[in-house]
Structures are given as structure tokens and as C-alpha cells.
Amino acid sequence: MNRENWNFAKQNTDFELCVKLANLISDANEKGKEYTEKYFNENRVKFGIPEKVNYRLIGTAQILGLITKTPFYASSKRNYCTSIYDLIKQHETDEVQYNIIKTEQLLKFRIRAIISEKKNKDFCILPVLFIYLVLKELKAKGRNYITNSELDKYVMTCKNLDEVNNAVFDIINDTPVSIDSKAVSDCRVDSLIIKNLKLFVTKGRGEKRRISINPDFDDYFNSEFVKNINFIDLNEKLLDENYADFLYNYQGFNINLIDKPAENKLVLSTKYERNSEIEYTNKVDLIHENEIDKAKLQNAHKIAPATHDKTKSKTSYNRDPKIGKSAIIQANYSCEISHEHKTFMSKATGKPYMESHHLVPIQFQSEMWGKYRINIDCVENLVSLCPTCHKAFHYGTDEVKSEIIEIMYAEVAHKYKAIGFEITLDEIKRCYGIGA
User: Are residues 69 and 170 both part of a single domain?
Assistant: First the structure.
């Protein structure tokens, strides 16, 4: 029986080198230059890329979703950096947060690759997840490894995620198959996975090398990721018409397969920026009801987020104080945790003083837009709070935060549903570092 193998060109598989290449390409675009072999050779030293690395490294960067050359840019010959690359740049100084994003991209890369047209045309599979599922099923049958030869013949010839049992059957029964030995030798899928992630461990060399699940990550990955997968939804995202959006935008997997589970914090940083928060709160208080454009509020969740401060380490997003004030007006100037909470009268408006709060914090604007196409600076995501309750969201213990998040989620769930915002209660808690 002849079988086609997963195809992944014989090229460098180092994720960090791909990020450096994306830096180089971003620089070229800023200068109005096209990415060519000449431009690469003239500038790679500046960006820390070793001489032995070929300019075709761009293929790996594209497969990992850092660089795109898709139909979105069909009229241009240039390569463009994606929103994932922008997110990596925001968090490159925080190793744990960087590794969360890196892990997601390695989990999302697909056979067939997005830039491949000729080979693996009938394939639609996520290698990291598939190899894990095969090993997990083998482990349930009393065997905790596969050899390199078995990986080549029985795993890397499967075409979609529902072929796990087929692969396990062939491994156990040593089904006779023939494969293209050159394609196997050129393929770098296992190198890409093993070099960049710690989900798998290897022992030995050559065809008899054994690959197994790293016990440090097994239970963690299974409980935090695999058991939460909606495979019907995932298969939809892997279709050609959906895959680009899935690959190039942050999905919020919040999984770290690089740092040991006990050592990492599975949530992108949500540090409370006191000065900007005070400024926003003051602006909200000064707005009067006659300044609110109700028609504009209805579509705020559909408008692409706008930034007001973008640096190498972070991106800050605009918050419209009029939208914040609208949430307070809708709550009739009362605290939505409890309408009995006491406050004082605002000097600016003569109304009870309240503060507006984004239930899904504005720091997650990029992630929420990428995953749900929802601008979270919208009235559906804003709640009216007394000053004490507002500070509890930022400074309270995890137990306090968890309780008030649950209260507010119950209040806004119907609003989220009305605009198609499908975030779960657990996801919101993760934004506050709870349950991570």
C-alpha cells in the first residue's frame, strides 16, 4: 500500500529565527522595500540571523503564521507581518506570555500548509495535536511510545484528525505500507515540534528513536486543552476558507508547552495601569447624558479597535468615555453588583457617582478581536460599579474577584449573546489570572 507523507520543506524550524526574520521583513516594509534574497543577505546580521540560515526561512515563518502572502494581499508582491507577529512584539519582554503565543502558533500549524498548493492537497491536520492523540490512545492500550519509523509510516500519512484510531491500529498490527523515503528525509515536521515545544520527549536515534509524551505536560495539556476542544468547530476552522483567519489571529488557547505547568501563568498580562484608568474614569464622570449618541452605541462592537499608544513592548487601545457613561446611564447610576451600594453625588453631573468597568479587560482587545471579531469597548461589555466594587476587580483576592465576575457575567450574558460574543465565564476569569 503506497501512502503520501506529510510534506514540510527541508528548512530551518527554529521559531525564534522566524521571529527575527519577521523583524527583518517588517523593517523592509517600513522602508518600502521588497523581501528578496539580496535584501535578506544584506540585513540578516543586523537582525541576528546566522549566515548559515537560508532566506527561504520565510516558508517556515509563513507556516507558523508570522508572515502572510495570502489572497488578502494578492495585488501586492510584498510579504506582510500578521497580527500574531504584532502580539509577539507586544509581549517579547515577558518570557511566559511570549511562550503562550508561541505554543498557540505551533498548535495551529497545519498540514497542508497555507502556502502549499501542490503537495498534501487532500490533507487537513494539526500535527502536534494529532501526534499527541495517537500517543494518548496507544498509552491507553499499554504502550507509551512510537518509533521514528512508525511515525513516518503510520502517523505522518494520516490526512485528518479523525484518523487517530486508524494510525493506532496500523502501529499495533505493523501494517505493511510503502512511503516515499526522500519525502520522509526532507520532512521537518518532527523537528519543528520537538525543537520548539516540550510536549514530547525522545530517546535514541535513527528509525528506532522513540517518541513519547512528556509526563510533565501530559495531564496539563489533556485537561486544559484537549478536553476543551470542540472538534467540529476545529475542523471548520481548518478549512481553506477559514484557516487564514484562524492562523493569523490570536485564538486565546492560553496553553504553555514550553515552561513547566507549575511555573507558568496562563493568562496574558493584565496589569492595572493606574494613571490611564484614573484619566478614563474622570472623562466618563464629566460626560452628560445629552452628549451620548445612542445610534453609535449599537454598532460599537463591530468597529475595528483603534490604538492610541503602540510601542515595542505593548499596545494600548482607545476607550470611548461616552460608551462608558452609557453603561452607567443604563444602570440608572447604580452599582450592578448591588443596587443598594452607597456612593456620593458627583460634582460634575449632580448624579450618583459611578465608574464604568470593562468586564473583559481592555488589555485583551487584540485577542478578543482576533478570536471573536468583537470590539470589547462596547456597552455590552461595560458595567456600572461603585468605587469600592471597581477597585475589587483590580485589587481584590482571587476569591473576591471570582465572586463578582460571576455576578456580572450573569448580568451581561444575554448582551454578549445578542452580539455574538461567545466568551465563557472561565475565559473571563483567566483574564484576571483566576483558574490559570
Answer: yes
> Which pLDDT score, from 0 to 100, does residue 273 have?
44
C-alpha cell at 394: 483590580
**373 & 311 share domain:** yes
Q: How far apart are CA 192 and CA 60, in angstroms?
A: 9
Q: Which of 189, 171, 174 is nearest to 134 (CA)?
A: 171
Prediction pTM value: 0.62
Separation of alpha carbons 46 and 29, rounded Å: 16
Q: How far apart are CA 320 and CA 300, in angstroms?
A: 10
CA distance 173 to 50: 45
- Do 286 and 371 belong to one domain? yes
Q: Quick check: is 115 in a domain?
A: yes
Cβ–Cβ under 8 Å, residues 165 and 138: no
pLDDT tens for 6-64 read 766 656 788 999 999 999 999 998 888 888 889 999 999 999 999 889 888 888 898 89
Answer yes or no: do 165 and 288 share one domain: no
The DSSP symbol for 352 reads B
Query: What stretches of 257-370 adopt beta strand conformation (E)?
Result: 307-310, 315-317, 355-358
CA–CA separation, 75 and 135 (whole Å): 44
Please report the pLDDT score of residue 235 as a whole number. 86
Domain count, the chain: 2
Q: Do 187 and 61 sit in the same domain of this protein?
A: yes
In a domain, 278, yes or no: yes
Q: What is the Cα–Cα distance from 214 to 294, expressed in whole angstroms?
A: 54
Q: Is the pLDDT of residue 329 over 60?
A: yes
What three-state secondary structure class fits 158? coil
Cα 377–chain centre separation: 20
For CA atoms 137, 141, 147, 150, the dihedral sign is negative
Q: Report the percentage of the chain scoring pLDDT > 70.
A: 86
> Per-residue pLDDT tens for 104-157?
999 998 887 655 445 556 788 899 999 999 999 999 999 999 998 888 889 988
> 177 is written with which cell numbers?
505500507
